[in-house]
Amino acid sequence: MQSSLSDTIWLSEKRKRLLLLLMEGPRNIDQIKTSLNVTSKAMMPQIKILKEQNLIIEEDRVYQLSDIGEIIVKNMVPLLKTLGVIEENNDYWATRDLSSIPEELDSRLGDIGECMVIEPDMNHLFDLPEEFSKNLIKSQKVMTIMAYFHPLYPDLYYELANDGVQIDLILTEPIYKRMKEEYTDKFRHIVEREHTNLYICNEVNLTSVVTDRFIYLCLFNKNDMYDHKKIMSFDASALQWGTELYEHFRQKSTLIEWD
């Protein structure tokens, strides 16, 4: 009895790795052995199974994905990437409120790639992480979604504005009012700079900073509380994911001019 397609793919690490390899292009057996660090004896039975399931085809001793094999593997990749991201920091993701991430992006959570969870100790709860501050001042473009106020942000963005950095800010109305009332001069300086765009959006329930260098994402926990845990990634796919997240909320925002 022939196995199901799902069993064929998921119940063998060798078969799964071969399918992913062939997604990059056709390979002969020697190239497969080198890339996957396997022997012919170990791999040939797996190739036979994949051929029987019409997932790969062979021509002149070169193997490649069939049409249905290519469709299946294209759909495998996002799932495997998402599993990788979640497995790496399972406790973090399991406790986050993910409802504020739009559907088209939560299905691509794997694009965040390799990331670090930043959790300060009790003596540094209100410090900005060194990795964040160090890379922020080296950035040329900064897109920020701000769902909570941090007392160090006014000074930090004031410095960025002085350095001519492109700043795009999405604030909730309460944060906007607090910045305007309590940090009037600095906030005016930030907002009136040629390279600053300011928006208000009250549908925001996360904080995100995306630059040309990294993404910094702060999600509330399932109790709708900020518990000082954040993630940071430098992967190119993560920057694209973060840019799309920013754009999603920008389209729901109102552009603000200083008055």
Number of domains: 2
With helices defined by DSSP (H or I, 4 residues minimum), what is the helix count?
Answer: 12
- The spatial strand order of the largest sheet comes to 4-10-9-8-5-6-7-11
- Please state the overall shape, judged from the principal axes of the Cα atoms: elongated
Unreliable sequence segments: none
> Which fold name corresponds to the CATH topology of the largest domain?
Endonuclease, Chain A
| Strand segment tally | 11
Helix content, binned percent: 40-55%
CATH C-level of the largest domain: Alpha Beta
The CATH superfamily title of the largest domain: Endonuclease Chain A
Q: What integer is the average pLDDT?
A: 92
Sheet with most strands: 8 strands, mixed
| Order of secondary-structure elements | HHEHHEEHHHEHEHEHHEEEEHE
Radius of gyration: 24 Å
Model description:
- The structure is a single chain.
- Helix content is 46%, strand content 19%.
- The chain has 12 helices and 11 strands.
- Strands 4-10-9-8-5-6-7-11 form an 8-stranded mixed β-sheet, sandwiched between helices. The chain has a 3-stranded antiparallel β-sheet with strand order 1-3-2.
- Helix 9 (153-162) runs parallel beside helix 11 (184-192).
- The longest helix has 22 residues, at 67-88.
- It starts with a helix and ends with a strand.
- This is Methanogenesis regulatory protein FilR1 middle domain-containing protein.
- Residues 126-251 form the Methanogenesis regulatory protein FilR1 middle domain.
- InterPro entries: FilR1_middle_dom (IPR013561), Tscrpt_reg_HTH_AF0396-typ3 (IPR016490), WH-like_DNA-bd_sf (IPR036388), WH_DNA-bd_sf (IPR036390).
